[in-house]
Amino acid sequence: MAKAQFHKNQRVFVKPVGTWAQVERVLPQWAKDVEEPIRISYDVGLGREFGADELASEASSTRVAGYDGENWRIMRGRNKWQQPEECGHHPHPGTYPIVVTGENDWGGWRVPGAEYDLYPERIEFQARLISGAVRLYRLTRELVHYAEDQPENFSNELMSLVQDAKQTVRAIEQTPEEDSGT
């Protein structure tokens, strides 16, 4: 079964042609008695249909191996309000970070362009911190479990840090019902 990797009006790089284009239509190919399309192609207005392997997203992404199937990553979105020359003080002129927390390249965390323009280094740090949170969570859980299994291998100073880690894990894993006290 196939899933759409691009959406209508998304800007994509067409590899065989070597140019940028906009997806005009998403064209699923259906088979009788099958719930999902068997193949998806894209009309980008260049005279023929292209497969997903022939297209590339405008935003490049940095994938982060996660925990329990989570795959949080930083993508770079194109700054539509400023040209790269106008924002030379940004760490990555012409783009801003987007932290994607789902399978598809949408959903997650973004900031308004005006806020990014005021504090670009701060926003870049926040994006890296959020995208790395899944790995930090996994690492913290493993540290807590190891300390609980083998406390003799930890000094008193390190056990103090493990207690902080345990509280952090407990706060993250807390459900909304536990949070409200019901």
Characterise the protein shown here:
By secondary structure, the protein is an alpha+beta fold. It is 32% helix and 23% strand. The chain has 4 helices and 10 strands; from the N terminus they run ββββββββββαααα. It has a 4-stranded antiparallel sheet, covered by helices on one side. A hairpin with a 7-residue loop joins strand 9 and strand 10 (108-109). Helix 2 crosses helix 3 (156-173).
3D shape: flat
Radius of gyration: 22 Å
Please provide the count of β strands. Answer: 10
Helical residues, percent: 25-40%
Task: Give me the secondary-structure topology.
Layout: E1 11-14, E2 19-22, E3 25-29, E4 39-43, E5 49-51, E6 55-57, E7 61-63, E8 73-78, E9 95-100, E10 108-109, H1 113-118, H2 120-149, H3 156-173, H4 176-180
Antiparallel strand pairs: 1-2, 1-6, 3-4, 4-5, 7-8, 8-9, 9-10
